[in-house]
Design a protein that fits this description.
alpha/beta, TIM Barrel, 2 domains, nine-stranded parallel sheet
Length: 277
């Protein structure tokens, strides 16, 4: 039985990223992440192998913590395994995870769409959607696909789960573009919005931090906005101070880890300091 939800968690939510192959290794990481300061989890289903992907195994994982666990399927493959799931297959897996006890899912912004950038060209209006001129990835404007995404979100909600809608743009966006993209995502009624853009210089970091402040003012939905790239790590640290509600962090760096993600203990210490009176 689901014991908790992300929307009931305090801010910032520190999600421990789980990228293990087995149930036992995942449960160990949950314990270690909690000890380091994690308040929630981000479980990558595609990296679980064999029986660890079965419903009985997933239930063991979701029952292994009183903190909320988000089911994620980004088509990351275990070493030596070539596996490519369709959007429908990935959605079926994360929805099954909710039925097994996951508190929510990460739904990618291009779910159900084979060529998201083509929808920008066909349906895009730069006046209405300023982000179009940057041609970001993982953004869909096709009304039929958007309706399918809304239906999937409604299904997760009907099961008692929450939805984070994510978008990794592949290009940097200015504040006006970020806000217009986030508002488009908000129209699909997710519980959280996550946007990740690359950044490679300090001037764009300042723009990104101003974007976080703008999102805090403009959105009615909790959000996480941070930047990739080495200099982008700054936004992961201080973004929650300016309004981001979540940070994705690692307890340790294994072979599948995103080494740009923070270590849980470092972030927990840092945020404890900046929150102190």
């Amino acid at each position: 039985m689901r014991k908790c939800s992300f929307t009931e968690s305090g801010e910032p939510i520190i999600l421990g990223v789980l990228k293990e192959a087995t149930v036992d290794a995942t449960l160990k990481q949950i314990r270690d992440c909690e000890a380091a300061g994690a308040t929630a989890f981000n479980l990558h289903l595609s990296l679980l192998e064999g029986e660890s992907r079965e419903p009985s195994s997933l239930k063991r994982i979701f029952e292994g913590s009183d903190s909320p666990i988000m089911a994620v399927h980004y088509n990351n493959n275990p070493k030596g395994v070539t596996r490519k799931a369709t959007s429908d297959e990935r959605m079926a897996e994360v929805i099954r995870a909710v039925k097994c006890g996951a508190a929510g899912i990460d739904m990618q912004g291009y779910t159900f769409c084979a060529d998201s950038r083509a929808t920008l060209e066909k349906y895009g209006d730069p006046e209405r959607y300023p982000f179009i001129t940057a041609s970001p990835k993982e953004v869909v404007l096709d009304p039929e696909i958007i309706e399918r995404q809304k239906e999937a979100i409604r299904e997760v909600h009907s099961l008692g789960g929450e939805v984070l809608m994510s978008c990794h743009t592949g290009v940097f966006l200015n504040t006006k573009q970020i806000v217009s993209l986030a508002k488009l995502m908000e129209e699909r009624s997710p519980d959280f919005i996550k946007i990740v853009t690359p950044v490679d210089n300090k001037d764009d970091v300042i723009i990104a931090l101003n974007s976080i402040r703008a999102l805090k003012r403009e959105l009615h939905t909790r959000f996480s906005y941070h930047c990739s790239g080495r200099v982008g790590r700054i936004t992961r640290y201080i973004g929650p101070y300016f309004g981001s509600s979540q940070v994705f962090a690692m307890n340790h760096y294994n072979e599948y880890a995103d080494k740009e993600q923070l270590l849980i203990a470092k972030f927990a210490d840092f945020y404890g300091e900046v929150k102190s009176p």
